[in-house]
Amino acid sequence: MAAVSDQAEKTRIVVVCKGNICRSPLAEILLQNLGRDLLDSRSRGVRGWHEGKSAHPDMMAVATNHGYDLSSHRGKQLEADDLAWATHVVAVDAATMDEIKSTFPNIDPTKLSLLKRDGADINDPYGGAPADFERCFAEIFEAAQRFVSGIADYTLLGKVSRWQ
User: Fold this and answer.
1) In 18-34, which positions are buried (b, 16+ CB within 10 angstroms) versus exposed (e)?
2) How far from 131 is each of 24, 69, 138, CA to CA, in Å?
3) Please, are residues 24 and 15 in contact by the beta-carbon 8 Å criterion?
4) How many angstroms separate the CA atoms of 59 and 20, rounded?
5) Helix, strand, coil percentages in the chain from 3-state DSSP, rounded to 5
6) What is the rounded CA–CA span in Å between residue 128 and residue 72?
7) One digit per residue, pLDDT tens: the chain, 164 residues?
8) For the chain, which domains are there?
9) How large is the C-alpha radius of gyration of the chain?
């Protein structure tokens, strides 16, 4: 994948889920690794339930098994500064997207999308079995690959990147 020129601005993605300990931290690290020359990413939760807490142990284990490290992650709640920073605000499911819209009614709708291109939800593995976390990893990995590929296509064409 070609690097973004020094003059081009990297795409800045904030991935959002409910509590910021399962889906969004995994998406953040996958996007960052898959698109390292093209984008910067961060993750947040729409709720402050897990503020300052580590990623879920089962998600950390699955990530580690696939060569990714979530050990430094600490949960954070989505704030207006995150929206100002981001070129893309990416929700993992429709309910999260709706909550973003209701909490931040002035959000630029062109920044907002779902992680999965087909608009499908990524189910929350929280409270589930280890196999649920593995399925979640597979879904997020595929969605992240497609997302990064879309950004690369637009960047190489010299156009503004929009995931829609």
Assistant:
1) bbbbbbbbbbbbbbbeb
2) 18, 19, 11
3) yes
4) 11
5) 40, 15, 45
6) 23
7) 444 444 358 899 999 999 999 999 999 999 999 998 889 999 999 998 999 999 999 999 999 999 999 999 999 999 999 999 999 999 999 999 999 999 999 999 999 999 998 899 999 999 999 999 999 999 999 999 999 988 866 544 444 444 44
8) 11-156 (3.40.50.2300)
9) 15
Q: Which residues are catalytic?
A: 17, 23, 124
Question: What tokens appear for 46 in the block?
Answer: 């729409």
- Which amino acid is residue 118, in one-letter code? D
Tokens encoding 25:
């931290």
> Cβ distance 83 to 46 under 8 Å?
no
Is the separation of the CB atoms in 59 and 36 below 8 Å? no
